[in-house]
Amino acid sequence: MMSLTEHYQKQGFRLATVTTENGYTWSTAINGTDESICEYFLGKHFNTKPFPFEEMSIVTSVSIDGKTYQG
């Protein structure tokens, strides 16, 4: 069986797993270089809770196709 990373790569995407300072983590399919993906996520604020309990948190790490970057 094909892994999620292999599936996205076959479709031309990369798999990024994003972690915020409050411990929230999610994975997303994205196009771009490691540098552009890190620039998009690292150090930026993202909402980590659904409305009406919204909570902004800063992205502290991004794993792209298994390689982790800290920011």
Which descriptors would you attach to this protein?
alpha+beta, 2 helices, five-stranded antiparallel β-sheet, 71 residues, 41% strand
Protein model, in words:
By secondary structure, the protein is an alpha+beta fold. 21% of the residues lie in helices and 41% in strands. Strands 1, 2, 3, 4 and 5 form a five-stranded antiparallel β-sheet that branches. It starts with a helix and ends with a strand. The mean pLDDT is 92.
Write the layout of secondary structure elements.
Blueprint lengths: L3 H7 L3 E7 L4 E6 L3 H8 L3 E3 L8 E9 L2 E4 L1
Antiparallel strand pairs: 1-2, 1-4, 3-4, 4-5
Gap from first CA to last CA: 34 Å
- Tell me the strand percentage band: 35-45%
Radius of gyration: 13 Å
Please tally the helical runs, counting DSSP H or I stretches of 4 or more residues.
2
Q: In short, what is this structure?
A:
By secondary structure, the protein is α+β, with helices and mostly antiparallel strands.
